[in-house]
Amino acid sequence: MKYAISAGAYKGKNVIELLEKVAEHGFHGLEYLSWKSVQDVRELVKAQERLGVGISAVCTTFFNLVDGSKSEQYLDGLRHTLAFCKEAGTPSIITQTGQEMPGISREKQKNDMMETLKRCAVLCEEAGVVLELEPLNGLVNHPGHFLQYSDESAEVIDRVGSPFIKLVFDVYHQQITEGNVIRNAVAYIDRIHHFHIADNPGRKQPGTGELNYLNILKAIKQTGFDGFVALECGYTIDTDEALHQFKRDIVRHVEQ
Hints:
The protein is built from 9 helices and 8 strands. It has helices spanning 15-24, 41-51, 71-88, 106-127, 150-160, 171-177, 181-187, 213-222, 239-255, and strands at residues 2-6, 29-31, 54-59, 92-95, 130-133, 165-170, 192-197, 228-231. Strand 1, helix 1 (15-24) and strand 2 form a beta-alpha-beta unit. Helix 1 (15-24) runs parallel beside helix 2 (41-51) and helix 8 (213-222) packs across helix 9. The longest helix has 22 residues, at 106-127. The chain is globular, with a radius of gyration of 18 Å.
């Protein structure tokens, strides 16, 4: 497996300084979600080549997939994001689905989402970039978000039917939404392109809450998964120290 950190791990650092931190810790990628803040993509590419690590994922710019009337707006944002990914060599784009719309059947919203995603799949295949759908919890952080459960998210992926439309499985969100983290991560591993990790409660670094990340990551690794696991979390202590602890207490045992 490959490990990444998110841009929020080090406040105030620019993208190249963040990549230097990724390399310093022996990690493999940086989630830099707000790609529009990259001022010079050529300098970014040079830094990635120098450091041997790069941006592993960004977010697209418009997050409403459930409103069919906004499909063109979504696709336009995706095209711009794909153009950045092609230039920067970024393999993944994260998207959410938007809020459930009152007064419209859930099935219609889901069908509209899938129709847009099928159009996205064509663009993503041309670019060689995977679009990752992210379920979010509605209990604590994202009330009303359309996709929350693993089984329904996997159904959407299956019905779209493209290897360029996958899931990002956020362990923190899924623990809150449904629990059964290991069971669901393993069951849906063929639809998952990427994992986010943070502990619960608090959304801080692994080891600060109730989730046993040693067992979770071992179970994921045993499936043969070789994609990115990204720490999308806050930190209760100095970030460098927290990452050292994560490598010492968890990664070392998972990867041995």
